[in-house]
Every structure is written in structure tokens, then in C-alpha cells.
Amino acid sequence: MDDTTKEERKRSAIETAILLHLKQKDKRSEPVAEERRKQVFRRRAIDIARIAYAHKKDKRGEDVIDHSIAVASMCKSETDRCAALLHDLVEDTEISLEFLRECFDDIKEYGPIDDIIEAVKYLTWEPGVTPEEYLTQIARADKPIAFKVKMVDMRHNSSDERNPISVFGQKVVADRKKKYRGRQDFLEKERAKYLKEKMKKEKGAERLLRNIEMKIKKQSLKNTQTTTKD
């Protein structure tokens, strides 16, 4: 008799493999020291990506995980690095956002998993979405994580390392670099546009709040004067 639970049967083979790995590797009897928490959090992201991309090769015949690691190494903050390690997982594998969050449940206090999951959501290119729509959704994300990771992702995708002429030919490489330069310019412009709109709304809200406070103050003063006359 198969004792696998109904919930476990719903999981993809990749998700099941990741869960088994985490159960075997991450059993701890003692709390992790504060200074090691970021390292443990990033190690979890690396482990998930390695299992998800196991045996997967890119067009050059290189391990797919190498791209994620390269993008992460080019990021400046620890949060951006973890998001970079996971940025293509939902799009390229059978892993869901919900499962990805679940993988960090036992160490969620070690890092900003909610912000990272949100970034991965924005970075996931859904079928039927145009490049402009996809980049615009990243540009208009409230937190800048997805924007920063995508800029680095495109920079790496257009690098000589990712585009050897000996493999793709000069024309293909030139076209690919031109495509990514155009997309980088578009994303930067859309982000600047969004931030400008956001700033304008915030200033408008501040003015409205000041006007309300002024009206309340005037009404309060008027009430005080009326009470004094009485």
C-alpha cells in the first residue's frame, strides 16, 4: 500500500526531490548563530536551484545553474543574490511560487523570503505576455529587487561569456546583444517613469494631508474661541 499522502502526490518530481533533500540535509538540533543565518538562507536557495536544474544544459552545453550563480555573483545585496539564484525557477521548471515559499518555512526568519518570492513572481515570464508587458510589470514593482536582478540578468545574457561567436556565429551574437541593450534601455526608462509617478502621488498625498491637518487646526481654534465667548 502506498503511504504517500494526497498532498505529496500532487507535487512534481522536482518538488519531491527538493523536499527529500531538505529533510535529509537540514535537520538541526541547535539554533543557527545570528552571523550564519544569511549564509544558511543563501545555501538553501543554491540547493533548491541545483536540484531543480540538475542535468539541464543551455544552448552552449553548459549547466543551466551556472547562469543563475553568475547573475547572483553580480548582484550587490544578499537579498538580490538569493532572488537571482531563484529568478528563473518558476518559469523554467515545474516549481510553483507556493512551493518555493514552503521550502523556506523553517528558516523564514533568516531572510526576507516574502520580498524574494514577490521578486520571483515579477521575474516570471508568463506565456502570452509580450516583452514590453513583462518588462513593464518588473519596472512597476514596488520594491526594486526584481528590477535590479533583471538588469543584471540581461547584462549577463548579453555578455561575451554567454554568447561565444564560435557557437552562435557573429550575426546571431550581434542581434542578441542588440535585443538585450534595447530591453535594458526600455526597463530603465519604465522604472524611471514609475518612480516619477510614485513621487508625484506621494507629494500629492502629503499636500492633501497638510490641508486636512490645517482645516482640523482651524476648526479646533474656532471651536475654542466659541467656547471662550460662551
Summarize the structure in words.
With 230 residues, the protein is mostly helical. It has a single domain, classed as Hypothetical protein af1432. The protein contains twelve helices and no strands. Helix 3 packs parallel to helix 5, helix 8 packs across helix 10 and helix 9 (131-139) crosses helix 12. The radius of gyration is 24 Å and the shape is globular. It starts with 5 loop residues before the first helix and ends with a helix. The model is unreliable at 1-9 (pLDDT under 50).
Give a nutshell description of this structure:
The protein has about 230 residues and is an all-alpha fold.
Helices and strands in order, then pairings?
Layout: H1 6-9, H2 13-25, H3 37-52, H4 65-74, H5 78-86, H6 89-92, H7 97-102, H8 113-123, H9 131-139, H10 145-157, H11 165-168, H12 170-229
Annotation field: number of helices: 12
Shape: globular
Determine the N-to-C terminus distance. 88 Å
When the domains are counted, the total is: 1
How many β-strands, per DSSP?
0
Gyration radius, to the nearest Å?
Answer: 24 Å
- Series of secondary-structure elements, N-terminal to C-terminal: HHHHHHHHHHHH
Mean pLDDT over the full residue set: 87
Task: Return the CATH topology.
Answer: Hypothetical protein af1432
CATH class call: Mainly Alpha
CATH architecture name: Orthogonal Bundle
Q: What share of the residues does DSSP label as strand, in percent?
A: under 5%
Structural class: mainly alpha
Helix content: 55-70%
Question: Which consecutive residue ranges, at least 5 long each, have pLDDT under 50?
Answer: 1-9
The CATH superfamily title: Hypothetical protein af1432
Please outline the major beta sheet: none
